Amino acid sequence: MTSPDAVxxxxxDLAEERLSGRSSEARAARTQRMIRAAIELAGQGGYEAVxxxxxxxxxxxxxxxxxxxxxxxxxxxxxxxxxxxxxxxxDVDARRPRGATPQARAGEVFARxxxxxxxxxxxxxxxxxxxxxxxxxGAHEERTPPVGHDNTFVDIAAxxxxxxxxxxxxxxYLALHMVESLWIGCTVDWLxxxxxxxxAEQRIRLAAEKLLG
Length: 213
Description:
Residues 51-70 bind DNA. Helices cover 69% and strands 0% of the residues. With 213 residues, it is an all-alpha fold. The protein starts with 10 loop residues before the first helix and ends with a helix. The model is unreliable at 1-19 (pLDDT under 50).
């Protein structure tokens, strides 16, 4: 017989307890809450709106916990960028680009990514602020350039262009990186009102057509 003073434990209560512990599932849930909070704040005011204390409060984690996962706001926003890249990859898998040529299919991937920036200019501002801002002068002397092809954006475009089984050549990677650089420049120019969205997309698609053709 149940005591009249007993508190009913619901499935939601059990789920909350499971996701607030030390399991890998709980750690993943905290990571996603922090990333989601960063994206929401960025959407409201760009890079400056993403404040660590506010992220921790929204994600319901202690400040010390936040810093165990992400040493800085920059690292959190880079993780948010990777999360959005994963969504782009899923979208490309679900809706394969239908261009008749590899360059058209790659151009479609870059165009979709730009459309995502248009929908959330605040996040676009935050993402490009952490990814493209130069490091403090002289700090580059202490940094080692990355080796290999680990650029998620470029890899997504390559798979869409030639298929997952295609062995991407060094020349093809170089061309894709050049398109990515132009994509970044066009997105920044759009954010700064130096280009309309239509003009930016036209340049992005033309770059893919010319460089990958």
